[in-house]
Design brief:
The structure holds two protein chains of two kinds. By secondary structure, chain A is an alpha/beta fold. Chain A has helices at residues 2-5, 24-36, 56-67, 72-81, 94-99, 109-119, 135-144, 158-167, 190-199, 216-224, 234-246, 250-270; strands at 12-18, 42-45, 88-91, 121-125, 147-152, 172-175, 207-210, 229-232. Chain A has one domain (2-271): TIM Barrel. In chain A, strands 1-2-3-4-5-6-7-8 form an eight-stranded parallel β-barrel, surrounded by nine helices. In chain A, helix 9 (190-199) links the parallel strand 6 (172-175) and strand 7 (207-210). In chain A, helix 3 packs across helix 11 and helix 11 runs antiparallel to helix 12 (250-270). In chain B, helix 4 (94-107) crosses helix 5. Chain B has helices at 27-42, 48-58, 70-76, 94-107, 121-132, 143-148, 150-158, 173-187, 204-212, 214-226, 242-248, 283-286, 324-331, 342-356, 362-374, 394-400; strands at residues 13-14, 17-21, 66-68, 79-83, 112-117, 137-142, 162-166, 191-193, 233-237, 258-266, 288-292, 294-299, 335-341, 381-385. Chain B has two domains: 28-59 and 94-208, 3-Layer(aba) Sandwich (Rossmann fold); 61-90 and 213-403, Rossmann fold (3-Layer(aba) Sandwich), CATH 3.40.50.1100. By secondary structure, chain B is of the alpha/beta class. In chain B, strands 3-4-14-9-10-13 form a six-stranded mixed β-sheet, sandwiched between helices. The radius of gyration of chain B is 20 Å and the shape is globular. Classes of the chains: A alpha/beta, B alpha/beta. At the A-B interface, helix 3, helix 5 and strand 5 of A face strand 2, helix 1, helix 8 and strand 11 of B. Bound molecules: pyridoxal-5'-phosphate. Pyridoxal-5'-phosphate binds next to helix 5, helix 11 and helix 15 of chain B.
Chain lengths: 282, 421
């Protein structure tokens, strides 16, 4: 089906979790719960020690996953084992991709991209790889037949936007606000502005908005503003973290995740309903 | 040798190293900064460099002296000269860059300054520059470093800066840089990030080197005037490598001048993969190529590419990466990457203090530890950069000296039971 194909007639719900948070087994159950809850694409984090684009919530997830022993090799095993309908997109930082060596000692991004594609990864999001440095990764992804998703920020000007769209595939990750990841209670007004700018390009790629979305209501408003999908990370990681802290049984936490996933997916779908158009605020 | 030619900032690549590995949200700011660097710093537009030179003189106290170290010269049977960046206002070379970048931020119309700090020297210099130029300033500093560099924390706050503790990880420079990048990603439209060494994404490694190049431009001229000709060897300690690159820059084309970058060997070389730590900060000597904090460079990492925690008795060298240009110069064999351990650094700290009457920063002390151990291998005439003064390290020295083998230390018993140990 592919990543782009997962954005169908309905607005897509794209959740993020860090693989291995808080343990490999629990995390598998959580990812599968998101799938049950209606995920269309799943961004599966491969934890890196210096997550410079993440706020405290996802930093916490990354730290727990590393403590649980997650490594690039175990991640590939995780991808093979986890049972989801939704295509998996690997979200990680460039150093892990760059350092990976396979049996043939193939260096640079090639080895990891191919190994990940073999395991079932269908795309990549690499937050510290701007278009200037993305050439080798883009070629590796083309070669392996997987997507490389570009991130568009509120600060991205038109010249950069054009170059970004040229190398992006799968979808475009529209960063809803300045800053780092983290759930917020409001929805940034700059989202609508970025979406409107993207609209001017005949980029057929779906536009998924992330950074700060935490409720079905947020998801609805984001879709009304023109998004083809919503990306939700920190709000879901909060559920994992709270459950872990309280020592709750894994199936209970998984159910909570499935419920929140359902709320977010339903909210996103509602955003497409014709109805009294409510303008995007603040 | 430098990547700038005819006033252009170059592409930020030093061989395979360098580049701009940062989130998209920061890229427009780096483009804007590169443009400002070319115009104001390289092009002296609106008299920027004239103003900076004037302020470095009147506020900073430049030029700093180059002086002969008589006792050390006799001890090592060589001519040893000290470039006295410890006499620069703030007590370390860091002000050259901090004042340059805060002034540049002003020219760019920015309204707020953020910076990371390890030893607190860069934070202090930035806080002083920000107060001097009337800019609000926030400094991120690791929890562990706050505890071991308390005088500097207070100095920053005296100068009106907000000091924000960073509690993730081991709480040292690596975490402080990550956290400052996160702040910048949020506030980038009105804020400038004054990075404290020749690290990070382009144009920082080139720009920070350029601001510190004044060290070697002065030293080269002073040496010619006071001594005649060129030195045979130039030595500087290396954490991120800013005093190093500044001390080497004007000598890069003088091929007969040997350049030594002295890293922190900590308590031992190598990386403990299982524990995820390196008991040292010797990324040039022992690191491998990787991507950290926006640049491809030599880093301390495990085989998977996870960055490991570094160690050094000196907070300012305690970092898992190093400037990309310095890494390149080492690969090209223009710069010798060497290191000495914590014991040798403390030995150097006490030696310079009790033979020359100069108390160096523990970072700087590594260069003197190297001189003590390896002077036989050096040429006749040696210049060492005294990158900073040691006042900030007195608490650490009181605490650490008895734990190490430092034969030349004064009797430390007097401190027993005073809370210092
Ligand atoms: C006095 C002094 N020397 C050296 C350093 C190391 O930095 P760099 O390698 O960038 O010169 C520091 C850093 O805090 C310092 O305070």
């Amino acid at each position: 089906m592919g990543v782009e194909g997962a954005f169908g007639s309905e607005p897509a719900f794209v959740p993020y979790l860090a693989a291995g948070d808080p343990s490999v087994e629990a995390s598998k159950a959580y990812v599968e719960a998101l799938d049950r809850g209606g995920a269309d694409v799943i961004e599966l984090g491969l934890p890196f020690s210096e997550p410079i684009a993440e706020g405290p919530t996802i930093q916490g997830a990354v730290a727990r996953a590393l403590r649980a022993g997650m490594t690039p090799r175990r991640y590939l095993g995780f991808v093979r084992d986890v049972d989801t309908e939704a295509p998996l997109v690997c979200m990680t930082y460039y150093n892990l991709i760059y350092q990976f060596r396979d049996e043939t000692e193939r260096g640079g991004p090639d080895a990891f991209v191919h190994a990940a594609a073999d395991a079932g990864v269908e795309g990549f999001v690499v937050p510290d790889l701007p278009v200037e440095e993305a050439g080798p990764m883009r070629r590796a992804c083309d070669d392996a037949g997987v997507d490389l998703v570009s991130i568009v920020a509120p600060t991205t000007g038109d010249g950069r936007l054009r170059r970004l769209l040229e190398i992006s595939s799968g979808y475009v990750y529209v960063q809803a606000r300045l800053g780092v990841t983290g759930a917020r209670d409001d929805v940034s007004g700059r989202t609508a502005e970025t979406l409107a700018r993207l609209q001017q390009y005949e980029a057929a790629l779906p536009k998924a908005v992330g950074f700060g979305i935490r409720t079905g209501d947020h998801a609805e408003r984001i879709v009304r503003a023109g998004a083809d999908g919503v990306i939700v990370g920190s709000a879901l990681v909060d559920v994992v973290a709270d459950g872990h802290e309280a020592g709750d049984p894994v199936p209970d936490v998984a159910d909570r995740l499935a419920d929140l996933a359902d709320e977010l997916k339903t909210g996103a779908v509602r955003g497409r309903d014709p109805g009294p158009a409510e303008p995007e605020r603040n | 040798m430098s990547s700038e030619t005819d006033g252009r900032a170059g592409d930020g690549k030093f061989g395979e190293y360098g580049g701009q590995y940062v989130p998209e949200v920061l890229m427009p700011a780096l483009e804007e900064l590169t443009d400002a660097y070319e115009r104001y710093v390289l092009g002296n537009e609106d008299g920027f460099m004239d103003e900076l030179r004037e302020r470095l003189r009147d506020f900073g106290g430049r030029p700093t002296p180059l002086g002969r170290a008589d006792q050390l010269s006799a001890r090592y049977d060589r001519e040893v000269y000290l470039k006295r960046e410890d006499l620069l206002h703030s007590g370390a070379h860091k002000l050259n860059n901090a004042l340059g970048q805060v002034l540049l931020a002003k020219y760019m119309g920015k309204e707020r300054i953020v910076a990371e700090t390890g030893a607190g020297q860069h934070g202090t210099a930035t806080a002083m520059a920000a107060a001097h130029l009337d800019m609000p300033c926030e400094i991120y500093m690791g929890r562990k470093d706050i505890n071991r560099q308390r005088p500097n924390v207070f100095r920053m706050r005296l100068n009106g800066a907000t000091v924000t503790p960073v509690t993730v990880g081991r709480g040292t420079l690596k975490e402080a840089i990550s956290e400052t990048m996160r702040d910048w990603a949020t506030t980038v439209e009105n804020t400038h990030y004054v990075i404290g060494s020749v690290v990070g994404p382009h144009p920082f490694p080139s720009m920070v080197r350029e601001f510190h190049a004044v060290i070697s431009r002065e030293a080269r001229r002073q040496f010619a005037e006071q001594v005649g000709g060129l030195p045979d060897a130039v030595i500087a300690c290396a954490g991120g490598g800013s005093n190093t690159m500044g001390t080497f820059e004007a000598f890069l084309d003088d091929e007969d001048v040997d350049l030594y970058a002295v890293e922190a060997g900590g308590s031992g070389l190598g990386v403990d993969d299982d524990a995820g730590v390196a008991p040292n900060s010797a990324s040039l000597s022992t690191g491998t190529e990787g991507v950290l904090h926006g640049a491809r460079t030599k880093v301390l990492q495990d085989p998977d590419g996870q960055i490991v925690e570094s160690h050094s008795v000196s907070a300012g060298l305690d970092y898992a990466g190093v400037g990309p240009q310095l890494a390149h110069l080492v690969d090209e064999e223009r710069v010798h990457a060497v290191n000495v351990d914590d014991d040798a650094a403390l030995e150097g700290f006490h030696r310079l203090s009790n033979t020359e009457g100069v108390i160096p920063a523990l970072e700087t002390a590594h260069a003197f530890g190297y001189l003590e151990e390896y002077h036989q291998e050096l040429g006749e005439r040696v210049v060492i950069n005294v990158s900073g003064r040691g006042d900030k390290d007195l608490e650490t020295a009181i605490e650490e000296t008895p734990n190490h083998d430092v034969p030349n230390a004064p009797d430390m018993d007097v401190f027993e039971g005073t809370g210092g140990m």
